[in-house]
Amino acid sequence: MNIPLDLKYSSEHEWARVENDVVTIGITDFAQNQLGDVVYVELPKVGGQVKHMVPFGVVESVKTASDLFSPVSGEVIEVNQALGDRPELVNTSPYDDAWMIRVRFSSAADLDQLLTAEAYEQLTAAEGH
User: Fold this and answer.
1) Which pLDDT does position 129 carry in this prediction?
2) Is the alpha carbon torsion for 84, 90, 91, 96 positive or negative?
3) Per residue in 21-74, pLDDT tens?
4) What whole-number distance in Å separates Cα of residue 39 and Cα of residue 52?
């Protein structure tokens, strides 16, 4: 399982790449593996607001549908349009090509609640995977 050390993670299996006041968000390798083949991704519109640990979208696979939770609160400034035509990118490139949204976050305190790569690895191990 791939868990990049330079990212932060939520207990709901989203990753966050922090660059200044912008956070790029996607789902983890662990999450995509649990979902199976992703067939659809529903994302918010640019300009919309997301709230810390509140669903902002849905990812659907051949097995199930799962809510996407925002690790931060703020304004959506970019959406990965490629996922509309190629949702399978979530399976093949969860940390690069399949980023989902970019958010200008409104509270750095949200970041303090995220997990390090090591803590996320322990979480997934505790879940028996």
Assistant:
1) 55
2) positive
3) 999 999 999 999 999 999 999 999 999 999 999 999 999 999 999 999 999 999
4) 26
Number of H helices, E strands in the chain: 5, 9
Residue pair 38/32 in contact by the 8 Å Cβ criterion: yes
**44 vs 118: CA distance, rounded Å:** 30
CA nearest to 28, candidates 56, 68, 64? 68
pLDDT exceeds 80 at position 128? no
Residue 15's pLDDT is what?
Answer: 98
SS3 62: coil
Structure confidence at residue 19 as a pLDDT band (50, 70, 90): very high
Neighbours of 121 (CB within 10 A): 16
Alpha carbon distances (Å) from 81 to 9, 62, 98, 100, 120: 23, 21, 10, 8, 28
Token pair in block for residue 44:
């918010």
CA distance 10 to 1: 16
